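User: These chains co-purify. Model them together.
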Amino acid sequence: MATLLEVDNLQTQFLTSAGIVKAVDGISYDVEEGETVAIVGESGCGKSVGALSIMRLIPWPPGRIIGGAVRFQGKDLVKLSDAEMRHVRGKEIGMVFQEPMTSLNPVLTIGLQITETVRHHLGVTQEEADKRAIELLGLVGISEPERRLKQYPHHLSGGMRQRVMIALALSCEPKLIIADEPTTALDVTIQAQILELMKGLTRRLGVALIVITHNLGVVARYADRVNVMYAGKIVERGRAHDIYHRPSHPYTLALLKSVPRMDQPRKAKLDPVEGQPPDLTRLDEGCSFRPRCRFKVEHCEREFPPLNSVAPGHVAACFETARVVRLEKVAS
Amino acid sequence: MSAVPAQSFAAPHAGDILLSVRGLKMHFPVYEGALFRKVIGYVKAVDGVDFDIRRGETLGLVGESGCGKTTTGRCILQLERPSAGQILFNGRNLADLDRNQLRGIRRHIQVIFQDPYSSLNPRMKIGDIIGEPMKVHGTEPDAAKRDRRVRELLHTVGLNPRFADRYPHEMSGGQRQRVGIARALSLQPEFIVCDEAISALDVSIQAQIINLLEDLRDQFNLTYLFIAHDLSVVRHLCHRVAVMYLGRVVELAECDELFDNPMHPYTRALLNAVPIPDPEVEASRPHQVIQGEVPSPINPPSGCVFHPRCTLAVEGCKKAVPGLRELRRGHWVACTEV
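Assistant: Joint model of the two components:
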């Protein structure tokens, strides 16, 4: 498989009254053609900012991409002009946002929003665009597509709106779709519908998918590879199986241990990650997870650990990975 | 004034019943017209709900958005005046009480809200937020004593007593939720409604708050109504679970029984939809996705409200509304086809 997208040492900062927030602090990862890659982390870890940076959707002020490269099919997206970038957005890379109510225009019909995109990027006539829109709505499982084209977003339920968002993202046959918490605002049965739909369509059409989420269950069901983020950095990456069965960063391990699981006997007590996530304006040169870490050693204060290989295709940013893995083995 | 319902929906084990809900209905009118407003229909948010909670028990109330779980909680808290039905707390029907009597009972029924950002007054100091219920209800009129009690409560919920002098915006979501819990505890209630109390929190913080709620339950012998949509959390925390769909309870059972042996087709679909954080388990599970969406509560389907989405539905399901039947000891199901 060829590499489709390569994010290389991407850094995005925000200027705030409290100081500079390094929301994305040198992250690197790649996505192969047709692959589903997950970015997992909690609020404020930089997972959404990282995705918005790929699309160059960071508003300045206060935010700015200050370094790194995003190579997509040979082009560095960071270096493109605004006009060139507009051809990438929506055409070569589609996007699905969390809140389908705020990401669709409430005063335009569904049909207009889809055909506008199609006409802009593909330069087809209104009739051809209408045909394409009907085809797309059918593809994402919306019944009576002709009638839906004339409806407004408020006529549709949350699940239906998210289907429209997916139709929009797919409208110009992109190579890559970035989905930022695509099902977080939805109920669990609708979430299952939307995720099955996205999985089916991306496999069938060979579209690569970056799915950004905090839900470890969603990741387990859909991702080929997983990047775990904490405080602006990727702290672990590997195939989904390795991340779940051989977590090698203390944060990944703690995260997996802290959620109750429906398929296992009930535990008397949960094992929470103690403490709070760090203040991103006050990070030092050491590891940002160390105040909450059970494995910390003296060296963690002096240097942020680099991503070390723990197995083929599996890296973790920790000096003590050997101890983490050993403990995990003993526990299971 | 005291009333004992004829049919019981309580857990089989012993213990007195603290709260009974019988035939609870909450219909909100829908209006049309700006000047001459007329009622054109009703949103049947809660449409005939029955359950019992024993003292010390945690009952989970689960279901998807719009199923009426939050409205049920608000009716119990007397934040809504139910259209019909009874809410018996310690055997007394809350609808029969006058203002003063209700005020006396309100002390014993407290709530923890979902959003720790909007449920704390941003202009009040944490100490005043936690102390206010004691002032209002006159349980601790002396300011110095109240202050001491506030600090004690902060300690109980795992916060530094120094937080009493801070404002909500200086705290994280998890810390604010602890403040909300301290406020709920300040009147030493018997019963707490936890309305999506952990849903707004991050995964790593959720586990901290779940453990805190469990510790407090044991320490103060609290009874919880735990309203949530996260089924794995409900399974961890609750003794019994009631599953709601479109304003009705469709299944009610002990926690392990419900999760090991779900009977109602909706409960089964719901459990099936929850992804499990393990790629191997996920790969081996059948993914039967339930079709369609929840119908509108203004014009719900006839008969069993689940029949348009149900795989077991037969002709009779469109006509008669199935009541809760006890199919196993302590396991009630509102379905005629299981």
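Residues 88 and 195 of chain A are 25 Å apart (CA to CA).
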